[in-house]
Amino acid sequence: MVIIGTGGFAKELLWLARECRAHDEAIPEVIGFLASKTEATTFQGLPVLGNDDWAYHQLDREVFFTLGMGNAQLRRTLAKRYEQWGFKPVSLIHPSAHYSKAVKIGAGSLLCSGVKLTVDIDLGRHCLLNLQATVGHDVKLFDYTVIHPGAHISGACQVGEASEIGTGAVLLPERKVGKNCRVGAGAVVVHDVPDGFTVIGNPARPS
Question: What confidence tens digit (pLDDT) does each residue in 70-128 have?
Fold first, then answer.
């Protein structure tokens, strides 16, 4: 597989991929990185293979991809681009992630170390659940959702497409966050959040 991106989360994603492969050799090996804006030829000891144009023209379509950035809307853009070009995403679930059999995990989604999910949870495509995030029963996370480290999603919540829940934020039960939203770090969501809003604070209010 290749990791798209050469930022901080790409470093963590390489570690995640290697941890997964150490427990399951069926997980593809990372062969390098793709980056649109870098002059570096190596990153984390692996080659920077090229940019998007290079991938489109030269990368074998048998090579899987994974997204090495935490920005939900950028993840959506790149996932759609690479899938339209015929590349296939890989899902990665850290061995320490704890979840029931009643959890649906969409293609390309990432579950990092310490993530916990309970029951009857539906994760869309290319979701990112970062370190120590928790998700309660009957939650729906739509495609490209990003749950940052230590955030807690209570039971029966919904988070819309390409929305981000900030580090340490909390969604109280049955709250709905629309698409293209941002919930700030440490915010406590006590009311539904409409599409496109950014909310911060406790209780969370539009910024």
Answer: 999 999 999 999 999 999 999 999 999 999 999 999 999 999 999 999 999 999 999 99
Half-sphere exposure (Cβ direction) of 115: Cα atoms closer than 13 Å: 26
Q: CA-CA distance, 176 to 109, in Å (whole number)?
A: 21
State yes or no: pLDDT of 38 exceeds 80: no
Tell me, yes or no, if the pTM score tops 0.85.
Answer: yes
SS3 percent helix, strand, coil of the chain, rounded to 5, is 15, 30, 55
The b/e string for 140-163 (b: 16+ C-beta within 10 A; e otherwise) is: bbbbbbbbbbbbbbbbbbbbbbbb
How would DSSP label each residue in 31-65? -EEE-SS---SEETTEEEEE-HHHHHHHS-TTS-E
Per DSSP, the residues of 123-177 read E-TT-EE-TT-EE-TT-EE-TT-EE-TT-EE-TT-EE-TT-EE-TT-EE-TT-EE
Tens digit of pLDDT for each residue in 16-31? 999 999 999 999 999 9
